[in-house]
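W.,

You were right to be curious about this one. When I first looked at the sequence I had no strong expectations either way, so I just let the prediction run and decided to look at it fresh. Below is the sequence, 154 residues in total, followed by the output.
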Amino acid sequence: MPRYAARTEVSPEDSRGEIERLVRKYGALGFAYGYEGNKAMLGFKTRSRSIRFIIPMPDEPEDMTVVKERRKYEQEVRRLWRSAVLIIKAKFEAVESGIVTFDQEWLYYIVTDDGSTVGDHIVPQLGKGKPMPLLPDFHSGNLIEAEAKVIHRK
């Protein structure tokens, strides 16, 4: 399956600029960008929330003088930035369209009082429970049974 934006020529700088314009359009009061190693970070403040969005980047080739390896690396960086634009635009559009609330859509990325994100707190807990069934058990006698009756009447 082809990867999204696999052949994009849009520079990472242009994609970051587009993201900054997007977050400003949707009400951000501040915007930050940085990187360390193979991680890029975007941050912004809006709706009384601070958001931190990390974009994993590929490792640089050991020898950046090898043209083929350098081009492959640079193409992947451009592709990842275009993907970030798509994700962020989709999240804001879902909120603006009333499909989800801001907190529902951005929950993982909301920065908490200790400087970590909600996702940093929650994800480690996910592996501790047993997997839940994909579909609810409509015969268990719980609240879902009432919802099932409504669905069957329609």
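Here's what jumped out at me. The chain has a mean pLDDT of 90. And, maybe more interesting for your project: The longest strand covers residues 39-46.

Coffee later to discuss?

I.
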